Fold:
Amino acid sequence: MSIAACPGIPDNPDITGLGVRLAFYIQAYITVILANLPGADVNGSYWAMTMTAVALFISALVLSGSQNLSLFHAILISVLLFLHSYAAAFSMWAASPFGVNRAPESVKTPREMERHVWKFQYKSVPVFLIATTFTGYIWIKAPSFGTPSVCNPETLFVILGKKLSAVHGGRISALILIGIHGVFLFLFLVSGLAFFIWDHFASPSRTIVPAYLFPLTSESQRKLNPNLEEYVHIPLRENTFAIEKVFRSRRRRKPREERNYVSQLRIGMITIWSGILVIFVLLIELTIKDNVSLILDPNDSTWTLGQVFPVVMLAVPCIAILQWSLEHHSVGEAVSSDAHHVNHNGEGSQTAVAPHESFSYRDQGVGTEEDTP
Structure:
């Protein structure tokens, strides 16, 4: 039986256009950077990123329903969706109190803290669910998916520089990766559901794991950072919210160890995310490059409405970062002015807390180990 020749895949700048790709890359990167800035509001950027991903997904459904979506374009859509899924996960983790930021003042108890963290984490689920479902479907149907399906055997999927057939090696590799993502997503959903069920029935005074909420008070952190004993005197066996209360009241005079920990956490997250972003960019760009011979009249310079929309949405995270910079600069000037005023009058030196000094929990109305029976 003879195999029909591939007639070529019509170009679709709304999906493969340079504007769409750049907008997705920049938006994903900026949103994670914004989430790692102390005190920055990431909600607007998160929703802008989510709207862009959902709009791309809806476009894919419309094109697929009208038999105008090829396997090649579906693969690119799936990778872009996963790019935004990872960006949402990283940004929500960083923006939650479990990451680099503190809980809002409305959070008063450990249970409210745990609830707050889980709600933050669950915000990354919708795009992950869409990406996993859509990607799993197209790879299961890869041999016959889309139009023209006769081009599917010639379509390449490039993973870490290795060219794989989209209906053979590439398909198997993709299904394995999707399976792994599916398992982790399922476990995360079950864990969250278990927490919310537990939260509904358990006593309000109970919490899950204090070390989960406050990494600096965990036994491993105390062993790795012996100097923390100078600041943390609350027994781990005590289920207390006092440590967060103390750190919240000392936002401008955190212990040096905590500042170093948070700085390292930010740098580590941004570094890991930068590496993941590079992998996604290479995967998309190399897949486009190695399939360009299948595309009819490829033209990266053609700008359509589908490309303009994601570019316009870039304004949201950019404005958020600009706003944070202005506010941060204003706060810095105010603090510097206050310090100059205090020094000029020769006052306030007795109340300043040196980085190496121990902090008294009695000043905050919190018991120390000596007070614990």
